[in-house]
Amino acid sequence: MEKYDLVVIGGGPGGYPAAIRASQLGLRVALVEERRLGGECTNYGCIPSKSMLKPVNALYDLSKMAFVRGKLELDFGEYMSWVDSIKTRISESLESLLKRYDVDIFESRARLSDGAVELNSGPSLRAGKLVIATGTEPASLQGLEADGTVVHDNRTIFNLRRKPSRVLIVGAGYIGVEFAGLFAKLGAEVHVVEALERVLPTMDEDFSKLISRRLSRLGVKIYTSTYVKEVERREGYLRAGLTSGVSIEADIALVAVGRKPSSVGLGLEKVGVRTDGKGYVVVDETMRTSNPEVFAAGDIAGPPLLAHKAYVQGIVAAENAAGLKSFYEPKVVPSVIFSDPEILSVGLTEAEAKKAGYDVGVTKLPIGGVARALIEDSIDGFVKLVYENSSKAILGIHMAGPHASELAGEASLAIEMGATLEDLALTIHPHPTVSEALQEAAELALGKPKHYYKK
């Protein structure tokens, strides 16, 4: 039996940073990954989905320009092979990095038992301490279980090699709206079904209204407060009956109705690790579980299910496993949706701030007055600042606009550092960039905008 100071189970954004940090601190480390290094993000989520969006958005933007001549199209099979190559390169680079840090990698499913980590293949591992970073997997719906041919989840969708003409998307969260826009720009007939009353139901309602308008302009049919009540799978397509009485035929369906924790079958109960009612591992601010020798990081430790949150938690877990005192206690965790336009949400919404007892001020700035938004032909977004009226401290930054995702770091830093409206207004932003919208919004809130008329 191989002995390690730390065994990390899961090689995604919660796991591999933990392994690297533990190695930097002098621990002998093993990492066990059942599939491919990089986890959900690299192989089935962030990386391949954004890789798909890049060429499609580029072609779509060019096609809208009247002076661009000729037919613009992509070879769908080669396009998807290129997407595969991106995630493969990233996964392989992670393997190389881990090996340079002397992390032993085991490709196997793991199960915990009596202080040991049992593998499906290879020797059992004895661990001084453990980090659980097994992530989540796609949730399914009865009657719409993924078969990888006609019905897909966020994993099997990347196996497509023929462009579908008709697409049914069940779920209008961030995965649903990203793929709805993508397939619509590829020329497909797209139908989106959402059980709740609006798209992006957990986000600010202004985002929901904007994205609904944009998708509708692309020809996407949206059915809210609606369920799929029956599905008939046929040769090469399916027919779905909705509770509204509408019947939809589609070449493929993408089920994007959330995630469930990958904790079943790990043997957590054998090592005294407690989970909540949904199966997520319960942790404290040090990422320690109910067993003081076991830590958890990333999606398995509960929402928000975001790779950048997992990175930080993995490092905190590793540092505590090595005997340091490290804490996971961010003021904010940014959320980004790569829709059209992109969406950024950091900190408190207006409703959350009022509920927390703040004397709330809100300023909403249309992004159309920013020169770069006009250049990008994306002028119907906005910036919304939520702040405390007395101190002018910024509580939340919410934005829809081109390249909004690239401003998530600045928005997060502003709130983490306790920035005020004056701080943001006095920070010089380069011109012409979308980042100017943040400065302009702060100036507007202070009553001194330079590119907007205010009575």
The named CATH superfamily of the largest domain: FAD/NAD(P)-binding domain
Provide the CATH topology of the largest domain: FAD/NAD(P)-binding domain
By oligomeric state, this entry counts as single chain
Q: Structural class, from helix and strand content?
A: alpha/beta
* Residue-averaged pLDDT: 96
CATH architecture of the largest domain: 3-Layer(bba) Sandwich
Extract low-pLDDT stretches.
none
Q: What's the main sheet like?
A: 7 strands, mixed
Number of strands: 22
Gross geometry: globular
Q: What is the CATH class of the largest domain?
A: Alpha Beta
Q: Kindly estimate the percentage of residues that lie in beta strands according to DSSP.
A: 15-25%
> End-to-end span in angstroms?
75 Å
**How many structural domains does the protein architecture include?**
3
Task: Please give a structural write-up.
By secondary structure, the protein is α/β, with parallel strands linked by helices. The protein has three domains: 198 residues, 3-Layer(bba) Sandwich (FAD/NAD(P)-binding domain), CATH 3.50.50.60; 107 residues, FAD/NAD(P)-binding domain; 111 residues, Enolase-like, domain 1. The chain has twelve helices and 22 strands. Strand 10, helix 6 and strand 11 form a beta-alpha-beta unit. Helix 1 packs parallel to helix 7 and helix 3 packs parallel to helix 5. The mean pLDDT is 96.
